[in-house]
Write a structure and sequence with these properties.
This protein is an all-alpha fold and 220 residues long. It has one domain. It is built from 9 helices and no strands. It is globular and about 50 Å long. The protein starts with 8 loop residues before the first helix and ends with a helix.
């Protein structure tokens, strides 16, 4: 329940505000620090063993994510304090991962962990909307609503799979691999919407992430 107070409601809002002040490029780059915080939580809080292959793989994945998010023409007229937004989002996400791992050791139910966390987060989001007196959006497209429902169902399955991985593995292994999701987004965007170009930077980033995942996966 405690984790639901912060994630995903708070972490998502911090990331969104980060895009507002820093732009999507810098926000994505700083959000890529999630595996670093996860490694710190795993080693110092949970006593996990950070082996050289895991460290090398994590660094490679972070480098790939930063390389993938860089687009040039980065906005530079942003306040220094705005860096707290994406870094704070990454810190909350990794802290929630560590908390989920601890909770699963007490109550080994990945489904229950996701249900409680996201139910609490939903209540927090609805309360915040009510306090701010923001009206609920009017549904003007049933087709769009169906897409949102489908996306929510897929996200629920993803959370269940991630929690199952936390139940059986270390967060310093699981989080770097989970953090590779932008590459799947890129692939789907290229295949479905034809809005991405697979240039030299993308190929290099893909090679880095593949090498990083191999290092992490074969570290045990």
């Amino acid at each position: 329940m405690v984790l639901g107070l912060f994630r995903p409601a708070v972490s998502s809002n911090l990331a969104t505000r980060g895009v507002h002040y820093l732009g999507p490029t810098l926000t994505s780059a700083f959000s890529s620090t999630t595996p670093i915080f996860a490694a710190c939580f795993g080693v110092f809080l949970l006593g996990e063993n950070l082996t050289p292959p895991i460290a090398a793989g994590t660094v490679a994945i972070i480098a790939a994510l930063v390389l993938l998010s860089y687009r040039g023409n980065v906005k530079t007229t942003w306040p220094l304090w705005a860096l707290v937004l994406p870094i704070g989002a990454a810190l909350i996400r990794s802290g929630a991962h560590a908390g989920t791992k601890v909770g699963l050791e007490m109550l080994p139910s990945p489904f229950f962990a996701g249900l409680v966390t996201y139910s609490v987060s939903l209540a927090i989001a609805l309360a915040a909307q009510r306090i701010r007196r923001v009206p609920m959006p009017r549904i003007v497209s049933e087709r769009g609503l169906l897409w949102f429902v489908g996306a929510g169902a897929m996200h629920a399955v993803a959370v269940l799979m991630m929690n199952t991985a936390f139940k059986t593995g270390q967060i310093i292994v699981v989080v770097p691999i989970v953090s590779t999701y932008p590459f799947f987004t890129l692939g789907l965007s290229y295949l479905v919407f034809r809005r991405e170009t697979l240039g030299r930077r993308t190929v290099l980033a893909t090679l880095l992430v593949v090498a990083g995942v191999v290092f992490v996966a074969l570290s045990r």
